[in-house]
Design a protein that fits this description.
The chain is α/β, with parallel strands linked by helices. Helix content is 50%, strand content 15%. A five-stranded parallel beta sheet has the order 2-1-3-4-5, sandwiched between helices. The mean pLDDT is 95.
């Protein structure tokens, strides 16, 4: 079984790389995708493509909509969505992606430290698995792509 897996969430740590490395080392039949993880490229795409804005709201509005085209398209194509909530920053985008994936009926794996369990209880309730490490995500992916016994 070949899977498309979308990696949503925080961009300030190497969790995506850890999952990618684990998937490659285990030779899993998985293609990974994600939002644009270069923060400035993501923030600036709207004005770089569609023209400058004087008001920060409209700058962010343009960028958010262009990013949404990419992110929603990739979530729609995904078989599984992994949503990472990190230790720093409010990750509204991750919460939105989790809600969008849930509305689309996509299986969700959340990934966050144990201390975020209470704050993320509603998001975790929509997830089919709640992981605390990228390695656990890789093991879940290995299990669900296994042919025969695990």
């Amino acid at each position: 079984m070949k899977l498309q897996v979308y990696l949503s969430g925080e961009i300030h740590s190497d969790w995506r790389q850890q999952i990618s490395t684990g998937v490659k080392q285990a030779d899993l039949p998985i293609t990974l995708s994600s939002p644009i993880t270069d923060h400035s490229a993501s923030d600036e795409c709207g004005i770089k493509i569609l023209g400058d804005e004087q008001e920060p709201f409209w700058k962010d509005h343009k960028g958010a909509k262009i990013n949404a085209i990419r992110n929603r398209t990739l979530i729609d194509k995904a078989d599984v969505v992994v949503v990472r909530f990190g230790e720093k920053y409010r990750q509204w985008n991750a919460a939105f992606d989790a809600g969008y994936a849930a509305a689309k009926g996509k299986p969700i794996i959340t990934l966050h430290p144990a201390e975020h369990t209470h704050a993320l209880k509603e998001v975790d309730a929509a997830a089919l698995a709640v992981a605390e490490t990228p390695q656990q995500v890789v093991e879940i992916l290995a299990y669900i792509t296994a042919e025969g016994l695990y």
